[in-house]
Amino acid sequence: MKPKTSFKLFEFFFIFFTTSLFTLGGGYAMVPVFQKRFSKYIEEEEFIKILSVAQSMPGPIAVNIAIMLGEFIYGFWGALLAVLGVIIPPIGAIVLFGSFVNKYSDNVYLSGFFKGVYGAIIGLIFGVFYAIVKRQKWKLLKSIILIISVIVAIFFKNFIVFIFLILVIWCYNTKRNC
C-alpha cells in the first residue's frame, strides 16, 4: 500500500539530509530516526519489512534503507533524492574533518567525545535489534538455529558461511518457514 505524501520532494530530501548530517554512528543509528520521522507516512509493519529487505541487500544500510523508503514513498525520484541526502553529509564530513581528527587524535576531549558516541551507537543498535526480535514469531526451531548460529559465530568464525548455507538448503528442501 503506497502512503499518501503531503510533503514536497525538497522536504523529502531535507529529511534524509538532516538525518544523515546530525546522526552519528552510521546507518544503524539512522534507522530509529527514519522510523520516527516517517511514522506519519508509513506504518510500522511496512517499515519493518523495508528494514528487513534493506539489511539483506549488499551495501551500507543507510543507503539501502534510503533507496527502499524513497522508492516506497515517491518512486524513482524519491529513491534518488533519498540516496543523495544520505551520502552528501558523510562525504563532506570525511573531506573536511578527516585531516583534523588525525592531527588532534591524542586530544583528551576529542577521544572522550568519540568514546561517548561509541556508547550511544551501541545503545541505538541494541534498540533496533530489540524492535526486530520483538516482532519475530519465535518457534523452537528458529530459537535453536539462532543459538547454534551465535555459538558457531563465536567459536568457529571460519565455518559460519558453511553452516549458514547448510541451514538455508535444509529449510528450502524441507519447505519449512524457518
From TrEMBL:
GO terms for molecular function: chromate transmembrane transporter activity. It comes from the Bacteria. The keyword Flavoprotein does not apply. It is a multi-pass membrane protein. GO terms for cellular component: plasma membrane. Pfam families: Chromate_transp. InterPro entries: CHR_Transporter, Chromate_transpt. The chain crosses the membrane at residues 12-35, 76-101, 113-133, 145-170. Its main location: membrane. It is found in: Cell membrane. The keyword Transmembrane applies. Keywords: Cell membrane, Membrane, Transmembrane, Transmembrane helix. PANTHER family: CHROMATE TRANSPORT PROTEIN-RELATED. Belongs to the chromate ion transporter (CHR) (TC 2.A.51) family. This is Chromate transporter. It comes from Thermosipho atlanticus DSM 15807.
